[in-house]
Amino acid sequence: MTVNKEADIEASNDHFIYKLIKDELQNNPFERSMCTRFPPEPNGYLHIGSAYAIHTNYAIARQFDGRFHLRLDDTNPLKEDMEYVNAIIEDIKWLGYDPVEHIYFGSDYSADIYGAAVDLIKKGKAYVCDLTPEEMAEYRGTLTSPGKNSPYRDRTPDENLALFEAMKQGRFPGGAKVLRAKIDMASPNPIMRDPVIYRIIHASHYRTGNEWCIYPMYDFAHPIQDAIEGITYSLCSIEFKSHRPLYEWVLSELACPQPPRQREFGRLNITGVITSKRFLRPMVEEGHVDGWDDPRLPTLRGLRRRGFTPESIIGFIEAVGNIRTESTVDISLLDHCLRQNLKDKTSSIMAVLNPLKVIITNYPEGQEEWLTVENNSENDSMGSREVPFSKTLFIERDDFMEHPVKGFHRLAPGSEVRLKGAYFIRCEEIVKDPATGEVTELRCTYDPLTKSGTGFNARKVKGTIHWVSGSHAINAEVRLFDKLLLEEPGAAADGEEWRSRINPASKTIIRDVLIEPYAKGTAPGQSFQFIRHGYFCVDLKNSTIENPVYNRIVPLKDSWGKKANVQ
């Protein structure tokens, strides 16, 4: 098990899961070392909620000097694919939770799980049922009324063995029969009312091909897989608490020695963020977003492409801390953790998103000079860089106001402002488009005695603005992101309801952005702070040396206007 060198991945000693396990281990329930697992189904990409579950399992294993397993729960061939397997493995390693050689596949245990089902049939604890899904739902009962027995519940073990073998041989169409555990149709827990443990699926599996046409349900396969791998604690989110009795029933009926224990922690939700694959999959497949790695998605691929770091995500998880129930965390906490991670290790550079041309009329024609500017005001060890200054500059259009309002301390006719790391300039003349009246150019003078860092500046100005040299600037594309959905949808993902809530302004593309030449040739994934605009990252997918593309990771201040909190 390896650990991200830049992150201290550790379970807090006051985490309730840690305390619970520590207390249980006092009674020595296991003769084997601690072992936890994360069992994603490879039918999509991991997301920020997945990271919380991964961290909990990994950190507990590390705290008790144990192993962490990644097990791909690939027992449903209809939507699983090697593409997702590779992405899951890569994302987990990127986060710093490398399982090393402990990567397993549920499909490798198919024969063992089948054998377990046969054992249950022989014991009279499982039976083949012919009820349709609609009939089965009707027989199951409700939360307040018990279910009733299937008319096929009393088939003999020999009958069930023969039918189950026929299911395995592909002699029945999909949905014609299922194998159910025989537990208690009057149980107050609906999950224990003779749950389905095997179903027929005639589809080629991405790893086993057509070897099998019957596949186990997760609730049946999962405890068996845990037992085979020597898992001690199956740590899962709170919605699986009602499934724990079935987990324990399976292991008990199969006489598993020192069975693994299922324990639950709270499920993490984030305001304005949808992590359900029921929404994410159609968003991707219908082209509402630019793939699973779209920077607007909460997938780890999307966050990585946007510019989030593993350390910022781990910092967020650790800041959320101990969750016992389903909880909602304000998204501003995630942004805050990212800013904290980036602020002292990224260079602050000048980028003009909405350029306005400035001519320095008293600066010599054809002359240029290189000025020294600090890279990061939070971290002196990052040093400085050289920034070119010339006669033609560009500033932000909103850093100029022809008729300044009270409190406006940037550039205006007749006023003076400091150029970041350079000189004072004064606006002497405005040039406008005669057809539209739009300001197209400012003609200014500079004071050579106000050069930054020379000690000659005896005067003060209230405003400092950023700028770039026109003849040296890099032309780039910038993408700004907002919430993908205007408001969170309801539970259904199969209607049009959520589609009508897609935010048309969730991605804004700004072309012809001008950036100082320090950023030229930077590799995809490199992050910068654009002064006054926020933190930006060179896009991993679409950026090239000739046509750089920058994604805004996060603004400099909370863009959601909410205080971070846990509800």
Automatic annotation (TrEMBL):
Residues 349-447 form the Glutamyl/glutaminyl-tRNA synthetase class Ib anti-codon binding domain. GO terms for cellular component: cytosol. Signal peptide: none annotated. Keywords: Aminoacyl-tRNA synthetase, ATP-binding, Cytoplasm, Ligase, Nucleotide-binding, Protein biosynthesis. GO terms for molecular function: ATP binding; glutamine-tRNA ligase activity. Residues 464-539 form the tRNA synthetases class I (E and Q) anti-codon binding domain. GO terms for biological process: glutaminyl-tRNA aminoacylation. It comes from the Bacteria. The keyword Transcription does not apply. InterPro entries: Gln-tRNA-synth, Gln/Glu-tRNA_Ligase, Glu/Gln-tRNA-synth, Glu/Gln-tRNA-synth_Ib_cat-dom, Glu/Gln-tRNA-synth_Ib_codon-bd, Rbsml_bL25/Gln-tRNA_synth_N, Ribosomal_bL25/Gln-tRNA_synth, Rossmann-like_a/b/a_fold. Residues 35-343 form the Glutamyl/glutaminyl-tRNA synthetase class Ib catalytic domain. Its EC number is 6.1.1.18. SUPFAM superfamilies: Nucleotidylyl transferase, Ribosomal protein L25-like. Belongs to the class-I aminoacyl-tRNA synthetase family. NCBIfam families: glnS, PRK14703.1. This is Glutamine--tRNA ligase.
